[in-house]
Fold this sequence. Notes:
about 425 residues; alpha/beta; binds N-(iminomethyl)-L-glutamic acid; binds fe (iii) ion
Amino acid sequence: MSLLIRGAHQVVTPLGTAARRGADLARLDVRQRAVVRCENGLIVFVGEEAEHERLFSDCDEVLDAGGGCVLPGFVDPHTHPVWAGSREDEFDRRLRGESYMDIARSGGGINATVRATRAASSEELLGGTLARLDNFLTHGTTTIEAKSGYGLDLETEIRMLEVIRDANRVHSVDLHSTCLAAHEVPPEHRDDPEAWVRLLIEEIHPEIARLGLAEAVDVFCETGVFDLEQTRSLLADAADFGWRIHLHADELTPLGGAELAVELDALSADHLMCVTPAGIAALAGSNTVAVLLPGTSFFLRSHFAPARKLIDAGCAVAVATDCNPGSSPTESMPTILALACLGMGMEVAEAITAATLNAAAAIGRANELGSIEVGKRADLVILDAPSYPHLVYHYGINPVRHVIKGGRIVVADARLIG
Length: 418
Ligand code: NIG
Ligand code: FE
């Protein structure tokens, strides 16, 4: 199966198979009027049309990019896409002045979604997840990292991870699964959080690893949730389980999560709204990707992570939606890119690298995803935009016209077809 994309005004991509840092974050390869050829799911040619004609004969399908821009499909390296219910009531409470943590302490927050998720059938959870995946895809996202964490008991955590596995089988979006059973202390263990930590370490993590349901593990390392010592113990067996580590780090308080992520050689340290200078220095000297979630800052009406300081220090920075029902209910990477630029001071070119190649590095897949280069997977978006800055400049709309996943057209004229 071969596909030729022609008629683009620009083909725009970062280059390479590792996260880009510092000034390199803004270095995009921009080719005017280039064509892209895909065969058997991979990119086999990027360059001038005349050169393509010289090297290749015909192809099965031709897609006209209509003068738009071709970019790598977005990779969203931090999402919580499996849940039941919704929390618009809390949203109104927050607008009236209550804080996210106040609401959590009064029985709302993550535990409100836990109640709804435990009560939902696996079919209902899968249906909700697939609907969200449709939204991811029509907004240009072709791969997501997907966490459990609204079960907080063995049975429901397993059901959530099974939903992620089944969604990955049936939906065009690829899912990289992460066990986040250590997302919160469930109500039944509120009086003895240490018992919950022991249960996670002795039963829940080993059983999920034995079932092969997760590729990675995450912990909400935060004041009032899991402290540094608990987080360290929760992650001690990760390597034995074949799990890479992501960490919710320094989100609401400066606890030192970034330094711990580096100490544990985590793939990513995420949120970082309260990261300290020491945390920034640790990340800069490591391969751990700083995954920033400006949608969460915006939605919680809080401050943004210090993206400029992280970039200028030489950290590998990625961005993600954090898609979840409490602190960032969106699947839209174009929206996140607008917030990365307008809220965190990133340049458009930096934000594009952060949402593609660096996001792929944050899930350990920069060798196969995140750029438009020969040999990479043919995951592409075509924007209805004459030049790539329009992706952010023309904000608040969905600029994605076509999406190609593994060399197949799955969104055409902004409508889902695959
Ligand atoms: O990434 N920080 C912890 N977890 C989520 C919030 C989940 C929720 O509120 O339901 C986050 O922001
Ligand atoms: Fe999160």
